[in-house]
Design goal:
alpha+beta, Rossmann fold, Dna Ligase, domain 1, D-amino Acid Aminotransferase, Chain A, domain 1, nine-stranded antiparallel beta sheet, five-stranded parallel beta sheet, globular
């Protein structure tokens, strides 16, 4: 098979690395990719947002399967464009991708399917939203309805915080069209967990669960980021909890999406809160998480490409997925200043030394090559993963690799997974 992966981050590096192991692969491309991905796949200089150009490349290069990494091309309809050309895409249609593209859509699906989630209301007028907040009080959650690069959610501890979030979206237009509607929902308490399922429209198989670390600083301090690290499996996420999530959240979603005429195919990412009343849905994403992909995929023993193909063609239930019974820890190295303003172009050394141990994998997330040098070219720059028979051993391996890197302009959290030891 000739396969095209879309994206340029650590998630896509993890996907490419896993797909490359398949005996089904004859040629592997990645658009636009990064220097780490270039060691495994041929890079194609097409941005992820240029869906027409990506579909045309797939058609003219006899691509058998396209695997989008980020959400943007899916919400823009890349799967539909590829279907018109007879090319398989392991990702949802534009209509089904609204599970990530619109918070209101997800809430409506959840309510229709009887899926446990927070009570909510949606607003397009600021004065109505502000009145709702004054009646409900805080803590309360305000979300921009559309895609806001992970920055459109405010967990407000005071009414003033919630009001400021509403004004930013509906009056100041901070998030543009994405913030033209806000969803306001009740505050839920409990540990969060990311659960992944591979879906073929009617069937779903469990793809793993992880615990992300969103805030930039040790001890969960500072602003939210795209993710500063993750661990798998999440402590306390039992087989019974997994079964409950699949039966009360994932599968009812597939049934409701099929009833609407928009069956979901691809990777469904459920952000969950494990409340005292049981697991509740926070939100859906329609692709693998980052850095969760870099944390889960190193544990996968099965042929990922065969499973992705089954998701496109049906019969997913007949494709078993096997995972190593180990712990996995990923640590994100970011450029100083992230998630605010940061410098690009600083040199990173020691990559080979850091990745010398077999149980350690380095994923490029925001890098570029300049001759033989690797330079930082993003906010989140590298993801260092360690695996082992225990969380302690996996952490120690990951942080030993971090310490072998030579990049004084970078930083990381030093407490990924420490809370669970």
């Amino acid at each position: 098979m000739r396969v095209l992966v879309i994206g340029s981050g650590g998630r896509e590096h993890a996907l490419v690395r896993a797909i490359a192991k398949s005996p089904l692969v004859t040629k592997l491309f990645c658009a636009p990719g990064n220097p780490g991905i270039a060691t495994v796949a041929e890079l194609v200089p097409i941005p992820v947002t240029e869906v027409e150009a990506l579909a045309s490349f797939a058609a003219s290069n006899d691509i058998d399967l396209v695997v989008p990494g980020p959400e943007a091309p899916l919400v823009a309809g890349i799967a539909d464009l590829l279907a018109e050309r007879g090319i398989r895409c392991c990702g949802p249609s534009k209509a089904a991708a609204q599970l990530e593209g619109s918070k209101q859509f997800t809430k409506e699906v959840a309510d229709a399917a009887g899926i446990p989630t927070a009570r909510w209301e949606a607003f397009t007028e600021a004065h109505h939203a502000l009145d709702f907040i004054s009646r409900r009080g805080a803590p309360i959650v305000v979300k921009a309805d559309g895609l806001a690069a992970g920055k459109g959610v405010v967990v407000a501890q005071t009414e003033a915080e919630a009001e400021a979030a509403v004004i930013a979206c509906l009056r100041e237009g901070t998030f543009g069209v994405a913030g033209a509607r806000v969803v306001i929902e009740e505050f839920m308490e409990g540990p969060e967990v990311s659960v992944f399922a591979l879906c073929d429209g009617t069937e779903a198989v469990f793809l793993g669960a992880a615990r992300d670390h969103k805030r930039v600083g040790d001890g969960d301090t500072g602003p939210n980021t795209g993710g500063m690290g993750a661990i798998a499996p999440p402590p306390g996420f039992t087989h019974e909890t997994r079964t409950q999530v699949m039966e009360t959240i994932i599968r009812p979603t597939l049934v409701e999406m099929e009833r609407r005429g928009t069956p979901f195919r691809g990777i469904l990412f459920a952000g969950l809160m494990l409340t005292e009343e049981g697991p509740k849905l926070i939100e859906y994403n329609v692709r693998f998480g980052d850095p969760e992909a870099e944390t889960l995929l190193p544990l996968l023993e099965s042929d990922l490409l065969a499973a992705l193909l089954a998701a496109c063609e049906g019969g997913l239930a007949a494709v078993p997925l096997r995972w190593r019974a180990e712990a996995s820890v990923s640590v994100v190295l970011a450029a100083q200043g992230y998630p605010g303003a940061y410098h690009r172009g600083t040199r990173i050394a020691g990559l080979d030394k850091a990745a010398a141990e077999e149980a350690v994998t380095l994923f490029h997330a925001g890098t570029r090559a300049e001759g033989d040098a690797i330079l930082a070219d993003g906010g989140r720059v590298l993801v260092v993963n360690g695996t082992g028979p225990s969380l302690t051993i996996a952490r120690n391996r990951a942080y030993a690799a971090v310490d072998a890197l030579e990049w004084p302009e970078g930083f990381c959290r030093r407490d990924i997974g420490a809370h669970f030891l």
